[in-house]
Amino acid sequence: MARMKFLCDADRCIECNACVTACKNEHDVPWGINRRRVVTINDGKPGERSVSMACMHCTDAPCAAVCPVSCFYTTDDAVVLHSKELCIGCGYCFYACPFGAPQYPRVGNFGTRGKMDKCTYCSGGPLADNSVEEYAAYGANRLAQGKLPLCAEMCSTKALLAGDSAMIATIYKERVLKRGYGSGAWGWQTAYKETVAV
Amino acid sequence: MRNPLRSLAMALLFALACGVAAPAVAQQPDSVNPTASSVQERQLIEALRAGTPGTGTTLSGRITIPDRNAANLVQPQGQAWRAFHQGAMHWVGAIAILGMLAVLVVFYLVRGRVRLEKGFSGVKIVRFSAFERMIHWLVAGSFIILALSGLNVTIGKFILLPLVGEDAFATLSEWAKYSHNYLAWPFMLGIAGMFLVWIGHNIPSRLDWEWLRRGGGIIGHDHPPARKFNAGQKGVFWAVMIGGAALSVSGIFLIFPFVSGGVLAMQFWNIIHGLAGVLLIAVILAHIYIGTLGMEGALEAMTIGEVDLNWAKEHHSLWVEEVASRSRKLPPGAAQPAE
């Protein structure tokens, strides 16, 4: 089985936010929830870079470690998913997540934030693959259909890469060697305790 | 359209210009090196760790969606919070709560129940009014549920989850969370009421030092004089006030997300809430012990509101004199113990 990861090549990202839009559309994500977002670092200054960020599906995921009801699980493809049936909406995963991935349907509403929602790496949840129930709770399950996450698949500059760790790292390395520069695999050190050595 | 040949020539010229220009840029020796100017995550995180001025507390940037918290790209503090929550929090909780239980068991085995030396006199005097008892049980009742549901969210998955299964545990935890959120309000009301009702009796005095120096009669069989509350009871009062205030403030910031700031503020208040919670639970365990099993004749003060005269004389001699002098309407200096 593959070790699925995201890699955002910040030297290619043009901050078009199409990944954000595609994600919201593909999974019918409600208002107020952003499973993916684009953050621009050093905006307007030399060295400005935009990074598309979502759940990084960490190795030894902090969210899973702190969850009081142990609702997280890791799939055979190393994707970190959670069960909304078990989630109690306490917010602990949000405190622990280094990437701000966990989202809640309601904020500031007397602690009743609702069930946590986050990027599923387009691989649904614990319910039956591609069932109506799974779509309603977690969104589309593209991995079960043999497809990669839509955000990366439709990225116009191919800045956002999704796929097996070794494969996307190789693609990124080739790019860096060819063009002679690269600002690194954002979030990898934090999420996987390793980075892409070029 | 009038001169198609001319258009064609222009197009050719344009194509040629492009073809010539491209290699010219590539060969330019002093072209901008994007690596030198590009921001690297590693540099930014190292700047964060070093606390370089101007870097802020998280690695954040500009965002085009309304959720301000989404502007945080990487917050390494999440891992520190995780390490605390899964490490130190468990140890502090275990040492405070299990340690206190162990101390109480050892104390019970060594000292035994603190009995009335002269036995029950059969004469009762009023110790707590109905209002005082109502306030006490309002705080006590809500605190027990808050403590259990609070412990559940921290260590329930290690103890209850294997016993009842994940579905039952998730349902239970959800109800525990709701009860924690809603019972917080009667608890806070009770803490405020308790402060107003008992603050007058809980100002530390020189008598408390004497009481502590003589071991409060808990260690040994001495009976140092005390007014309505002795130094130990004052200690419980102030622990409940300070702990209750810390729990209330931190709890309000947790119950209304992002009122206190961003995710870092919430991590901070969560740590305060957890530590104050387990420490107050440990104090209250000792309070429950001495109020029930640990001391003969103590529990009825808070149940029926009356205590035996001998109990009052042994543990709160000065308070008995005050009550007696008040009831006989004598000037305080002329009061003589009723024998």
UniProtKB/TrEMBL annotation, chain A:
Q: Domain named 4Fe-4S ferredoxin-type: which ranges?
A: 4-34, 47-77, 78-107
GO MF term set? 4 iron, 4 sulfur cluster binding; metal ion binding
**What phylogenetic lineage does the species belong to?**
Bacteria, Pseudomonadati, Pseudomonadota, Alphaproteobacteria, Hyphomicrobiales
Q: Name one Pfam family in it.
A: Fer4
**Protein name, UniProt field:** Formate dehydrogenase iron-sulfur subunit
Q: Which InterPro entries match?
A: 4Fe4S_Fe-S-bd, 4Fe4S_Fe_S_CS, ET_IronSulfur_Cluster-Binding
Q: Which NCBIfam families match?
A: FDH3_beta
Q: Which UniProt keywords apply?
A: 4Fe-4S, Iron, Iron-sulfur, Metal-binding
What is the superkingdom listed in this entry's lineage? Bacteria
PANTHER family, per the entry:
PROTEIN NRFC (PTHR43177), PROTEIN NRFC HOMOLOG (PTHR43177:SF3)
Organism of origin is: Bosea lathyri
Q: Indicate whether Coiled coil appears among the record's keywords.
A: no
From TrEMBL, chain B:
UniProt GO MF annotations? electron transfer activity; formate dehydrogenase (NAD+) activity; formate dehydrogenase (quinone) activity; metal ion binding
- Gene Ontology CC entries for this record: formate dehydrogenase complex; plasma membrane
Q: Where is the Cytochrome b561 bacterial/Ni-hydrogenase domain?
A: 127-303
Per the record, membrane topology reads: Multi-pass membrane protein
PROSITE patterns from the UniProt entry: PROKAR_LIPOPROTEIN
Cofactor(s) needed, names only, are: heme
The record ties this protein, via InterPro entries, to:
Cyt_b561_bac/Ni-Hgenase, Di-haem_cyt_TM, FDH_cytochrome_b556_subunit, Formate_DH_gsu
Question: Where, subcellularly, is it found?
Answer: Cell membrane
Protein keywords: Cell membrane, Electron transport, Heme, Iron, Membrane, Metal-binding, Signal, Transmembrane, Transmembrane helix, Transport
The keyword Cell membrane appears for this protein: yes
TM annotation in the entry: 88-110, 137-163, 183-204, 236-259, 271-290
Signal peptide region: 1-26
Swiss-Prot/TrEMBL GO biological process terms: anaerobic respiration; formate oxidation; respiratory electron transport chain
| Family designation | Belongs to the formate dehydrogenase gamma subunit family.
Matching entries from PANTHER family are given as:
FORMATE DEHYDROGENASE GAMMA SUBUNIT, FORMATE DEHYDROGENASE, NITRATE-INDUCIBLE, CYTOCHROME B556 FDN SUBUNIT
Identify this protein by name: Formate dehydrogenase gamma subunit
Lineage runs: Bacteria, Pseudomonadati, Pseudomonadota, Alphaproteobacteria, Hyphomicrobiales
